[in-house]
Amino acid sequence: MAVLDIRQRTGWLFFAVIVGHIILISAQVNTRRGVPMLEAVVFGAFAEVQRAATSVVTGVQDSWNNYFALQQIRRENQQLAREVTEMRVALQQERALASQTRLLQQLLDLRGSLSLSLTAGNVTQSTVIGGGPSPAFRTITIDKGSHDGVRQDMAVIAASGVVGRVILPSLRAAKVQLLIDSNAAAGAMVERTRAQGVAIGTGSDRLQMDYVPSSADVKAGDQVVTSGIDGIYPKGLVIGQIESVRGGTGDSRMIVIKPAVDFSSLEAVLVVLTPPAAATDSSRPGVQPGTPSPADAPQVEPSTQTTHDEPPAPEPDESGDER
Amino acid sequence: MKAAAVLVGIALALALQTTLARFVVGGTAAVDLVLVAVVYVALTTGPVSGMLSGTVAGLIQDALSSGGVIGIGGLAKAIVGFLVGVIGQQFIVTAALPRLVMLVAATAVHAGIFMGLYVALGLRTFPSPWQAMVGQVLGNALVGMIAFAIIEATPGMIERRRAGRRVR
Hints:
Chain A has helices at residues 10-28, 37-68, 70-113; strands at residues 123-131, 139-142, 155-157, 162-169, 174-178, 185-190, 196-201, 207-210, 223-226, 238-246, 254-259, 268-272. By secondary structure, chain A is of the alpha+beta class.
């Protein structure tokens, strides 16, 4: 118990006694400003303690606010992230609506710009609701049928050009044979030289233009439009652009057309409810003087045949074959 | 037992101090019997006892003094008791001269601390502090030497008286 023996710690005891006396004296003596010395000293010392404690508390508070309280910020961040995601989805929906609106506007513009008899009363806007069941048959299904006035062999067009023709209308839907189907064809004309021929589907994403006069000036890059002689497609609709002319000159040359319509992204189309009468060259409006003779123009059978070796018949095939 | 004896001695010193003070001419006590008692305790028992006895005696003396600051006397006597106790352990101070020197030095230190603190704190002024200090030194030295002699002779005298009674 030597540690607790006060006699063994004389120095500490002396120090304690002296401090005790100083405290006792300070409690009774005032400073020059009239404040008790003990109070002044204690207050001064305690103020430092308070300052240190405040610093610690402030540090802890700052740490809490800057780090631990960030849990709230994290929740807000997650909430904001969710809202951003929702807004992105909504934006995509709005963009889709805007795109659809633009497409419809283009269709309206197309309907208004056609110089033929395509007025608001003889065309109807339709939406593509399905594609063909087999890649061998290039068809789509639209949401308008006989109930809406859609009949067989009516032309179906899009903002960018010719799509195809109706081959099987039902009450509220219709099957449309695309122009690229291997059994499809349309009366065509090179816009630049007015050289006429027949645009025939190949089953791929390209068309072939046959029955072009051997003397006709045709070259790659020329735009091909409908000639209107098939009685299905109104005259002047864009079919596509000549991609290549192969095989030299004359009847043996092969003219490949790149369709103007992107058939893989069709959404809305127009159905021409009133088929135009088969046009003759003399009756077609807008035919430029010096264009190729109509005698050279082939007769197109809109319903298409299985072989393209023979010129198509001038009248549409009411049976509308679909293989 | 030793603590009780110390307390009794300090009490007697305080009683004598308060009793004799009124007989001093001019009312100024030139002799501090309490300080003498503290010095004696410190010399005979050591620094701790001397310091504690000085603390207790000084505080009581301060408390009994009117208008003073409680603690200044206690501080002065505690320091003196501690120092005297330390020196008493380091040197042989049983002879008369060393004790005289110790009494003189202790009284001077006590007066210096006491009056110095009062002056430093601006609580009192002493018109002639050196004169008062010298008076206390002489008075304490004289009374102290006599008191030490009486205290140390008392047990022998009592023993001799008891022995004489037995012979008779």
